[in-house]
Amino acid sequence: NTYAKMSFAVPAGKHAVVQFDYIRNYKPSYFRGGIYIDGERMYKNLPPTDDYGNAYESGHCVFHRILSQGNHTIEITAGGNYCPYEIKMDNLRVDIISPAEPTPSAYSNIQAGDQGWLKVYGSFETPNKTISYGAQASTFYSGPIASEVISTDNKGRPREIEYYETVPAGQIQRGFAYPEGTGDVYSKDTHSFYIDGVRYSMIYHGDISSGEKVHLKEKVSGTYTHSVNIARERTAGIPRFDLITYPNNPATATGNIAFDETFTKYYFPKKTSTGLTNLSIYLPEGEYLIKNLKLYYMEDGQRVYLQNKDLDDMSQLTPWILSTGLSASIVTAPEEEQDDEYIKIYKKGEKVLYNIFYDDYEDDPSKIGYWVYQHINWPPDGMHPDAGKVLTVPIERFYLSGKYTVTHWEVDNTQRSGTVGDAAPYNKESNKVDLTFYVDGGGEAPWITYIKTNPAAVKENNYYTISVGVDDSEKDILALETEVYFNGKCIKTDIKTGIAADANGEYPEQIISGLPKAQVGVYQIICTVSDHSGTGIKSYKFTVVSEGNITGDVYHTEQWDINRKKYNLKRFSDEINYSCKYTDYLSMSIPRKRGTNVFWSGERFMLKAETEGEPYEVTVEIKSVDSQGNLRSTGYSAELNKTGKKNASGSELWEGSIWENSMINKWGRNNPELLYFDFTAYYPGGVTKEHRVSIIVDSDRDYWQLHRLW
Questions:
Q1: How much is the pLDDT for 484?
Q2: Cis peptide before 99 (omega within 30 of 0)
């Protein structure tokens, strides 16, 4: 079971309405949990199930009760048997109800920048999604409803009862049922209640307890049946229903309404924000340059840009209305250095950078290079005229949008001064490398509003999904292609078509799933959205860092390793510079070949560890197997020291050793023994990583007797 809780306060003399978005994904027959405010579960009908009994639903909820002044709690619980479950809450809002509409605040500031530029920045609050609420009357009834005994036992006691809930014409009804029953769990008494078609068992393997509140589904006009099958020689029924009835109209049909404390009045979002905000720039008379105009909002701790690119042509100034007598033009800025993204996106006419490096182990110079371009064009632009041709010089600028992949290779020149004849037959081709890049079409194409990962911080060895937002000024049917690159190599391509805007002109968020577990490295997401008028593109990059790893090693001192080699050379004419399995070592005849992992008791154990991440401590503990076969600590341990050095892969190196006088005759005196060295790295936040290394200790001959053999 998982659990999360938060608290908030409604000011004195005020009331509040709670709104949030949610996702529910589970098996209803096994799931236990939900979203609760002050102990009451959110009022939403359960979603329908698929052929496997799974249910998925996402949506928006206005909590069904108005909250009064004081402290309140929001709880999210999820749990159950035999099933995965997921429940999420996002975009939580607590709207304080007051007689007057609040005025959004705005802030701006101007600072001196570089080379005479002024830096202007600021922020403003957009209006709440709900600006004001309306209120209408509802009716509330609490008590029994019409019922009928369907069957009885041989003593005339009810075995099945039906209850009839009637919703008047033109009305919607919701509420609660309070089933009750008697029985004994040890006798396996079971009452089966069927409320809105959902089975609830009571007493034995009970889903609910006697008197527990059960939510009734929202219903339109008609008569609906609930029933109970009663356990043998027991009593059960639904003696009380709380029914709230209100008009069926566009506001109530959404289900997003909130009731007062007596359920005799309901509140609904009356005035909502259009989501549009005007931004004006006022400048004194004169001539000005404006650059780096960026508009964004924050979502999940990330900036989602509405404006974050230079203007390519004057048509992109359409959203800006110039005052009378003003004119504007585009001034081309000098090309800026590209960032370190693997896959680059260029504007039309922008110089393409080819970071390709040639090397030859014989230091032969390149005689000639070849370039072959593949082009996937984005209409209305056509195919590049040189696509598919073998060129001897690269193309530096492109004026047709689309995806380009260039294959490049070199041929070396083996002709040197003094070489007799033509050396061309000895000129060899290099390996071929591919580079992928994009050329943005601009224009009136649809665009990507945001790209984000779920969760926002992707961790090593965890699964994740990608969310993409799209938009189009003409609200055409869109297609989205998403490519995921890992360290420059494409690992996933996802294509979605038929993306349509809803009645409000909003496109649904697109989810890309089925991605492999995240590994340490750099990820780049390239999204292209298209319609008949063109294609828009956006890139998003994130890095997955190692949460930590440790690899330990136990080895001999230099002198003890010399002793081991001499021992083997004397008996086997071989140094035996490899490790031995314990079972293989025991099967050898005596004297045994002492591999690199075979030690004498009394040696100093040299320790080394390689760590990833940023551990603040590394320890080693020696363990052995006791007479009962259990792994026990020997009491010997050490803390390793960071050397300040790294290996070729960038792992930190730690070193240390363990030796005490009491080790000299401690192990392997009669028979070879296994010792286990547990390496542990400690990271902030309570994270630990471990690695175990085993060695063999064989001291059938005292180590000082070795000298008698040489």
A1: 96
A2: no
Strands (E), 426-502: 433-440, 447-454, 465-471, 478-486, 489-499
The amino acid that residue 409 corresponds to is W
Count CB atoms within 10 A of the CB of residue 579: 14
**Closest to 55 (Cα-Cα) out of 33, 35, 26:** 26
CA distance 553 to 606: 8
* Tokens (6 digits) for 56: 């998925």
pTM of the model: 0.42
- Pick the range with the lowest mean pLDDT from 100-104, 164-168, 303-307, 386-390: 100-104
The tens digit of pLDDT for each residue in 397-454 reads 999 999 999 999 888 665 555 555 555 555 677 788 899 999 998 767 889 989 999 9
Please choose, from the candidates 100, 99, 104, 108, the residue with its C-alpha nearest in 3D space to the C-alpha of residue 128: 104
DSSP conformation letters of 583-640 = HHHHHSPSSPP--TTEE-TTPPEEEEEEEES--SEEEEEEEEE-TTS-EEEEEEEEE-
3-class secondary-structure state, position 425: helix
For residue 288, what is the enclosing H or E element?
Answer: none
pLDDT of 171 higher than 90: yes
What is the C-alpha to C-alpha distance for residues 520 and 459, in angstroms, rounded to an integer?
A: 9
The Cα 298–Cα 305 span in angstroms is 9
Answer for the pair 688, 679: CB distance below 8 angstroms, yes or no: no
Widest Cα–Cα separation across the chain: 120
Domains of the chain by start residue, with CATH: 2-97 (2.60.120), 137-269 (2.60.120), 344-440 (2.60.40), 549-709 (2.60.40)
Beta strands 433-440 and 344-347, pairing class: parallel
Say what the pLDDT of residue 51 is.
61
Alpha-carbon dihedral sign for residues 327, 333, 339, 341: positive
Strand order in the sheet with 673-683: 598-599, 687-697, 673-683, 617-625, 631-639
Is residue 286 within 8 A of residue 273, CB to CB? The reply is no
Q: How far apart are CA 694 and CA 253, in angstroms?
A: 68
pLDDT in tens, 627-675: 888 999 999 999 999 999 999 888 999 999 999 999 988 999 889 999 9
- What is the helix (H) or strand (E) element at residue 570, kind and residue range? helix 558-572
The single residue listed with the structure tokens 């619980």 is 77
Torsion angle of the four alpha carbons 525, 531, 532, 535, in this order, in degrees rounded to the nearest 10: -30
Residue 421 pLDDT: 53
